[in-house]
Specification:
The chain is 39% helix and 16% strand. The longest helix has 20 residues. The chain is an alpha/beta fold and 487 residues long. The chain binds zinc ion (ZN).
């Protein structure tokens, strides 16, 4: 099995031995990979006490036209040789083998095992042999006999009797207790409200404020506020993490939260590289992509985010081929208001000239701003000013409950979060009152809202209505949504 994007393609290993010049020939793999694989497989077999027979051996990996990367096929090739030598004579039909071999015959974990095994199951495979290091990652897959192994030698122990399943379920770790970040933030009621709305409808949000105003804290609060992944989302996310070798702990149940540094390369962020791997935006799929100090990201990187923000996926095209990865993330961008950082500060004075501020604000790309649903200026508040005791209720848990209820409402109504509704879907599902449409049309003219901005307001208004459990979107919901766009 090999992966192209998130698509798994089965590969058949055929081994044939004939008389002739003793040699090992592999067909269907890129040259460089062949040499490395040959060496590892031969060495691993010898370390299991298997003599490489002096015959002309041809290993054919079919289909030939499929580009095969990675070394997950090595175990299957070794098994093919062992079968030809008669060292393994149990039935290997409906069985798949995954694993990279070390020179000593031990098995190394492989990337992308989760999606490959799911695809194998769909093809009717009944048994899977794979490296022990991947055991947790696929332990939750049911109705399949799983055989985690550490060493190629283990396959020889079965000799001519069919192996019995070794393990199945491994329990997952309990969730860590959530910290009540929201209650720790005194004042900032408007910011907390905006974060709550963003979480409930999975809207992109821009946080502008001085250093220390609490931008990072708000972003991190999102982790605890976002509703849990649905089962389908969870499988989707785990597949992507598995491709990067990041799913060792099993099925991923919490929404991803990725915070790549602004020095991260475009390939690291968007995906690609020589293995065409998913990037940060795909690892943030169904979760959060937090870009702190957003103005520090190169404008080319900001621009490159436009398409995935629009489509929820990314297509990476290189000379060696093209792949597509899902990238339906929620963007949280944070930035200082001006070069010195203190433009809206209560106590400190901004030292920037109007020109410096204007130049700085140009670094926030206009097309990106247009794709952000909620834009928020956060005032710095001196905590000493608040003598009130901290609230006794867990505000974060409360916000999480509200967002979870709103998620259920959205899924029942339209099978997706409000942020991801198209114009047609908005018309069909959003139940926007006529007065609300009329009001927004007037406001759009007055504030020169783009058509994209107009739709963003409608989506956010729908979420505000959902948090109130209101079936229809009222004028007041639109007014509040507008307030998060016009500054
Ligand atoms: Zn300043």
């Amino acid at each position: 099995m090999v992966m192209t994007g998130l698509q798994a393609i089965p590969v058949e290993v055929e081994v044939d031995g004939t008389r002739g010049q003793p040699s090992l020939i592999m067909i269907g793999l890129p040259n460089k990979t062949v040499d490395e694989a040959k060496e590892r497989i031969s060495s691993a077999l010898q370390n299991c006490g298997i003599r490489i027979r002096s015959i002309r051996t041809v290993v054919n990996l079919a289909p030939a036209e499929v580009r095969k990367t990675g070394s997950a096929l090595e175990l299957a090739i070794a098994v093919g040789l062992l079968k030809m030598y008669g060292e393994i004579d149990w039935d290997t039909t409906q069985t798949m083998f995954f694993g990279e071999l070390s020179l000593d015959g031990s098995l190394k974990s492989v990337k992308g095992l989760f999606p490959m095994v799911l695809a194998a199951q769909e093809l009717g495979v009944k048994r899977v042999f794979f490296p022990q290091g991947n055991a947790k990652e696929i332990s939750m897959i049911e109705d399949l006999a799983l055989y985690p192994i550490n060493h190629l030698r283990e396959l020889l122990f079965f000799k001519n009797q069919s192996p019995k399943p070794l393990i199945n379920s491994l329990s997952s770790k309990p969730q860590e207790p959530k910290i009540d970040v929201l209650s720790q933030m005194v004042g900032q009621e408007q910011a907390k409200r905006a974060i709550q709305i963003a979480a409930a409808g999975r809207h992109n949000i821009l946080l502008i404020g001085s250093p220390g105003a609490g931008k990072s804290m708000l972003a991190k609060a999102m982790r605890s506020i976002l509703p849990p992944l649905t089962k389908t989302e969870s499988v989707e996310v785990t597949k992507l993490y598995s491709l990067k070798g990041l799913a060792q702990t099993g099925l991923i149940k919490e929404r991803p939260f990725r915070e790549p540094h602004h020095s991260t390369s475009t390939v690291g962020l968007l995906g690609g590289g020589h293995l065409l791997q998913p990037g940060e935006i795909s690892l943030a799929h169904q979760g959060v992509l937090f870009l702190d100090e957003f103005t520090e990201y190169q404008s080319s990187v900001q621009e490159a985010l436009r398409q995935p923000l629009e489509d929820g996926r990314i297509v990476i095209t290189r000379a060696i081929g093209s792949v597509e990865y899902p990238a339906r993330f929620m963007l949280i961008a944070a930035a200082n208001p001006c070069p010195c950082g203190y433009q809206y500060h209560e106590a400190k004075v901004c030292k920037c000239t109007p020109r410096e501020i204007a130049n700085y604000q140009k670094r926030l790309s206009g097309p990106i701003l247009d794709r952000i649903d909620l834009q928020l200026k956060i005032q710095s508040i001196d905590p000493q000013r608040f003598i009130e005791p901290k609230p006794k209720i867990n505000q974060t848990a409360l916000a999480n409950q509200a967002a979870s209820v709103a998620q259920i409402v959205q899924l029942e109504r339209q099978q997706k979060a409000n942020a991801f509704l198209s114009y047609k879907e908005l018309q069909k599902f959003a139940q926007i009152k006529l007065v609300s449409w009329q009001f927004l049309s007037q406001a759009a003219k007055k504030f020169l809202l783009s058509s994209r901005g107009y739709l963003k307001v409608l989506r956010v208004a729908r979420t505000i209505a959902d948090l109130e459990q209101s079936e229809e979107v009222d004028k007041k919901h639109v007014i509040e949504a507008l307030a998060y766009r016009i500054n």
